[in-house]
Design a protein that fits this description.
With 145 residues, the protein is an alpha+beta fold. The protein is built from five helices and four strands. It has a single domain, classed as Arc Repressor Mutant, subunit A, CATH 1.10.10. The strands form two sheets. The protein has a two-stranded antiparallel sheet with strand order 1-2. A two-stranded antiparallel ribbon has the order 3-4. The longest helix is centred in the C-terminal third of the chain and has 29 residues. The termini are far apart.
Length: 145
């Protein structure tokens, strides 16, 4: 390189530009970003209807979709949809089906990560009920003495 200092200056300039960009990023408060916030309740009753399954994708038939092989754990979209319709989404994927041609497939898929807050709410509901039952048992033991 004829002028090595110019290359270093360009890299430094790019780095400083990135730093300035980061400093000027807009900070949005969560309360501005998320509206109509409600606590999740009654989830323990809804979760009763879900049937966790172990399955395998048909990776031979749908090779172009690059689906994971081996055992998978999750839920069937048809099962989840009745209790949590907002967690089921239709997915469209394109895959090669020959020379210069593609196919598009659509299928329903469960958004498992969005099920986590529902599970946490159900655990909290159950824990509250356990604490209430412990108190009742304690009172019954005192009365039996």
């Amino acid at each position: 390189m004829k002028y090595p200092i110019l290359g270093k200056s360009a890299v430094l300039g790019l780095f400083l530009s990135a730093c300035v960009f980061t400093v000027n990023a807009q900070n949005i408060e969560e309360s501005e970003l998320k509206v109509n916030v409600e606590k999740v309740s009654g989830s323990a009753r809804q979760l009763i209807n879900l049937e966790p399954v172990k399955f395998q994708y048909d990776v031979k038939k749908y090779k172009g979709l690059n689906l994971p092989s081996g055992n998978q754990y999750g839920f069937l979209a048809s099962n989840v949809q009745s209790s949590f319709p907002e967690l089921v989404h239709e997915t469209a994927r394109q895959y090669p089906s020959g020379k210069n041609s593609n196919k598009v497939v659509t299928y329903k898929e469960v958004d498992n990560k969005d099920l986590i807050p529902v599970l946490v709410a159900a655990i909290k509901e159950q824990q509250s009920e356990i604490e209430m039952l412990k108190k009742e048992i304690g009172l019954l033991k005192k009365q039996a003495r």
